[in-house]
Specification:
This protein is of the alpha/beta class. It contains twelve helices and seven strands. It has two domains: 146 residues, 3-Layer(aba) Sandwich (Glutaredoxin); 134 residues, no CATH class. The chain is 46% helix and 11% strand. The strands form two sheets. A five-stranded mixed β-sheet has the order 2-4-3-5-6. The protein is globular, with a radius of gyration of 20 Å. The relative contact order is 0.13. The N terminus is likely disordered.
Length: 313
């Protein structure tokens, strides 16, 4: 059986937020679906280990468990990433890691569209989330896992697990956030995106160089615009109105939320030359937000930024 070739890591902008756009008929974020258990508030769920091996046959149990605790899923080719396991253990049961040999589990490989190893994904409330490919430094990895926990909290998945026979783990001590950042984070956790936007805007007004607030504002504004909409509704409106700027901006939001940055950039940049001054201003503003969501080090941002500059001048 052939080994899947490894690729470099690409972190910022790679988290698939599209699961937060409710499919038609599904409950709103934070509400358990019919027939699914809600996260337990009475104490941690006992599991054999915080790091488990899984396969095609055993994965159904993890889908159920992901209604209680976010599950990180690592696809490897015979040799799990030890550093990932160590970092996940450091979260004291707020995350569980499932390692899957992609070469031996073709159904899971296909379901998660794994094209390289290691590929790291997640399960939250039974829904898959794309995270990143390749090994990364521990500090970058923790940033992604922190974001995963925030997304899980928005969907009501806030339980913990503990390994059989293990003593209760102490919560890792975290450096406190600046007050306005903490205010924004708390608002995001309870699903109050307007309050989070206000907190980030205040932080930027106090310090225009606060890049974390600028990036946070772009991300939460994207989530706020997608709240209450379904992917089907957004794509249908865009298809019916190819010259409707609002519809095209909405579907670009959807593409960015799913990590399809190139599609979003191309859609808006192709539309740009035919727009009036007001429309061009709106597209430019939205693209700058996307650049913050993705991060300046993403090569797709560089390509899109150069094309935007050419169109402007």
């Amino acid at each position: 059986m052939s080994t899947i070739p490894p690729t470099g890591a690409n972190l910022r902008g790679a988290v698939d937020l599209s699961s937060l756009v409710r499919p038609a008929g599904q409950p709103a974020a934070g509400q358990p679906a019919a027939g699914q258990p809600a996260a337990s508030a009475s104490g941690p769920t006992v599991v054999p280990s915080l790091v488990v091996e899984s396969n095609d046959a055993a994965f159904a149990g993890l889908l159920d468990l992901s209604n209680t605790v976010p599950i990180v899923v690592e696809f490897h080719a015979g040799s799990p990433w030890a550093g990932l396991a160590n970092v996940v253990r450091g979260y004291a049961g707020r995350l569980l890691l499932a390692s899957v040999d992609a070469t031996r589990n073709p159904q899971l490989q296909q379901a998660f569209t794994v094209a390289a190893v290691p590929t790291v994904a997640a399960l939250v409330g039974g829904r898959p989330l794309a995270l990143f490919e390749g090994e990364v430094a521990d500090d970058q990895l923790r940033q992604v896992l922190d974001q995963l926990l925030a997304l899980a909290a928005q969907n009501g998945v806030t339980g913990t697990v503990t390994a059989e026979g293990a003593a209760p783990a102490e919560e890792p001590e975290e450096e406190p956030l600046p007050p306005l950042h903490q205010e924004a984070y708390d608002a995001i956790e309870r699903g109050d995106y307007p309050a989070a936007i206000t907190a980030y805007e205040t932080a930027i007004a106090q310090d225009p160089r606060d890049q974390l607030a600028v990036a946070g504002l772009a991300q939460v504004a994207l989530l706020h615009r997608l709240t209450g909409k379904t992917a089907a509704e957004i794509r249908t409106a865009a298809g019916d109105g190819p010259n409707d700027l609002d519809a095209q901006l909405a579907v670009a939001d959807l593409d960015v939320s799913g990590g399809h940055l190139e599609d979003a950039f191309a859609r808006l940049l192709d539309l740009f030359p035919a727009l009036d001054a007001d429309g061009k201003g709106r597209v430019r503003t939205r693209l700058l937000e996307y650049f913050e969501v993705a991060g300046a080090d993403d090569p797709r941002v560089g390509v899109a930024r150069r094309r935007l500059t050419t169109l402007l001048y």
